[in-house]
Specification:
It holds the Pfam family BatA. Helix content is about 40%, strand content about 25%. By secondary structure, the protein is an alpha/beta fold. α7 links the parallel β6 and β7.
Length: about 350
């Protein structure tokens, strides 16, 4: 199969008639000016070596090189063979807590920022698998379905925040159940859920939900963000001022991370708990090492055609024509020698 890799360069062919028209206009103006200046016999003595065919020859060489250069830049290609590539991997859902407690600044710059940065690094490490993103508070939102469009997944993570779900509080059990529903039934034993949260849970059903999901073939890894010391949750108001999340009585509310809950969820889900401290990239690599142990499934096969380029068929002759045009010079040396004194 034939194709042009960069067909936009064929627009250079439009230069051929334009340059031809300009040259004819210039040649007619030049010939008329010379005719007014002197007759042909006198002109041969006044301008020895002037060859009326030489400009046409040089211009023709230049004009012929343009289509050749145009096709060379378009890079004509012919298909050499068709290859079938099979992709293997697992389905991974990243569950990201976006409740108000994630605004706490007990880790810098905040729990939310650290979680987003880590999740982005994790997507990079897990390239090759189907990845989805679930955002949750007391309710859950599957913001990115399982996909290999990693740029889209990263954009979803980068924009994640409490403003996306108005109902606040944290229900880790519901998040696990909603994530489980996002997996295809055929991916049992080839799936993983990675929960990123500070561990605050207002329902208490998370461990039971993790155990039930694990019995159906889902492995759950948990990432704990934040410290157990109390911390305020800073928010930006609509008028541009900054305030803190307040309790029902009007006083400033505080939040404390609960790593024990995250450990219990990971244990019940057949996975492992990791605290988000230190190097996010190293932690993402550690998670990848665990995920790679999960038996992979074969995803859809894709066929690709490999192409061989033949731009040099056109580039070589174009360069040769330009070299000849340059070597011809601007006047006929032999004709000029006849008039030398």
């Amino acid at each position: 199969m034939f194709r042009l890799q960069s067909p936009e360069y064929l627009w250079l062919l439009a230069l051929v008639p334009i340059l031809l028209g300009l040259f004819l206009w210039y040649w007619n103006r030049r010939r008329a000016a010379l005719a007014r200046f002197a007759d042909t016999e006198l002109l041969d003595h006044l301008a020895p070596g002037m060859n009326r065919r030489l400009p046409w020859t040089k211009f023709a060489l230049l004009l012929l090189s343009i289509p050749l250069l145009s096709f060379a830049m378009a890079n004509p290609q012919w298909s050499a063979e068709r290859e079938e590539i099979k992709r293997r991997g697992i389905d991974v859902v990243i569950g990201l807590d976006i409740s108000n407690s994630m605004l706490a600044e007990d880790v810098q710059p905040s729990r939310m920022e650290r979680a987003r940065y880590f999740a982005t690094a994790l997507v990079t490490e897990l390239t090759g698998n189907n990845i989805g993103v679930e955002l949750f508070t007391c309710t859950s939102l599957m913001q990115a379905p399982l996909t290999t469009d990693y740029a889209f997944v990263k954009s979803v993570i980068a924009s994640a925040g409490p403003y996306q779900i108005s109902a606040q509080g944290t229900n880790l059990g519901s998040a696990i159940e909603q994530a489980e529903a996002a997996f295809d039934e055929t991916s049992a034993n080839h799936r993983a859920l990675i929960l990123i949260s500070d561990g605050e849970d207002h329902d208490g059903s998370a461990v039971a939900a993790a155990r039930a999901a694990n019995e159906k073939g889902l492995l759950i890894y948990t990432i704990g963000v934040g410290t157990e010391s109390g911390s305020l949750m800073r928010i930006n108001l609509a008028d541009g001022r900054q305030d803190v999340v307040r309790a029902s009585g009007g006083g400033a509310a505080t939040t404390s991370a609960d790593p024990a809950t995250m450990e219990a969820i990971a244990s019940a889900g057949g996975g492992q708990y990791f605290p988000l401290t230190g190097d996010s990239g190293a932690l993402a690599a550690a998670i990848k090492a665990r995920v790679d142990r999960i038996e992979k499934q074969e995803f859809e096969s894709q066929s690709f055609s490999s192409y061989d380029s033949y731009f040099y068929w056109f580039l070589g002759p174009a360069i040769l024509l330009l070299l000849v045009e340059f070597a011809l010079g601007r006047k006929d040396g032999r004709q000029a020698a006849k008039f030398e004194i």
